[in-house]
Design a protein that fits this description.
Layout: E1 5-11, H1 18-23, H2 26-30, E2 34-39, H3 46-50, E3 56-59, H4 64-73, E4 79-82, E5 87-88, H5 93-101, E6 106-114, H6 119-134, E7 144-146, H7 147-152, H8 163-172, E8 178-187, H9 189-194, H10 196-211, H11 216-223
Parallel strand pairs: 1-2, 1-4, 2-3, 6-8
Antiparallel strand pairs: 4-7, 5-8, 6-7
Helix pairs in contact: 10-11
Length: 224
């Protein structure tokens, strides 16, 4: 029997968090969800750590969009969920998605950012509000989409940044997303390592420039 849900996790040197992320998926896997890890060339043992917790561990050219598209090619589920390696799904995510996607072909979760800086709660709240208002979500919010819709729009655009934004823009032309109030827990390491305010301003600037038409291949230089 084919699984209802395929969860695709792109990785690159995620040894510090991949076991926790995949261990949280054990209840979903036990209920039949397919877990696919797509590694982009880790040198820290990520694939080996992931192997006991996944149905497939694949290797692909580095680049989140390319890795997620590669994983989707091996997915058997009617619904695809794209999960960042440092993000924890709710234990009942499969049931929540099943109920949501019967009426809408794609959607995302609310997010809570885990960290010590008080601004992270504000960032998460604003992310959730913005995506509900605009129909645009980020990869941190665990995007899910029916395999039919995903194939219809040609998958993720093979670009080095803003692939989640572009996917949502294409899906939004077909139908509105389902905004699930249940929360995924994602690490605040990016904000806290780079500086919370610095990262907030950087992401606003990058999204503004992308909206103005600056290509992702140029924006990624500033992101790095």
């Amino acid at each position: 029997m084919e699984p209802y849900l395929s969860i695709i996790v792109p990785t690159l040197n995620e040894a510090s968090c991949i076991v926790d992320t995949l261990a949280a998926l054990i209840p979903l896997r036990n209920r039949g969800s397919q877990i696919i890890v797509v590694d982009g060339g880790s040198n820290d043992g990520t694939p080996e750590l992931a192997s006991p917790y996944a149905d497939l561990v694949l290797s692909a050219r580095s680049g989140r969009a390319h890795q997620m598209n590669a994983g989707a090619q091996y997915a058997h589920g009617q619904t695809l969920l794209f999960l960042h390696a440092d993000t924890i799904l709710p234990h009942n995510a499969d049931t929540v998605i099943y109920n949501a996607i019967r009426n809408q072909g794609w959607g995302r979760f609310n997010v809570e950012i885990i960290g010590t800086h008080p601004m992270l709660k504000v960032v998460a709240r604003l992310m959730n509000m913005r995506s509900c208002l605009t129909g645009i979500a980020t990869g941190d919010q665990a995007l899910f989409v029916s395999r039919q819709l995903f194939q219809q729009i040609g998958g993720f655009p093979d670009q080095p940044l803003m692939e989640d934004i572009e996917l949502c823009k294409r899906l939004r032309k077909l139908q509105k997303p389902k905004c699930i109030s249940a929360k995924v827990l994602t690490s605040g390491r990016r904000w806290e390592t780079r500086g919370v305010w610095k990262t907030i301003l950087l992401m606003w600037r990058l999204r503004w420039r992308y909206w103005r038409g600056v290509p992702a291949t140029q924006l990624v230089k500033d992101y790095q």
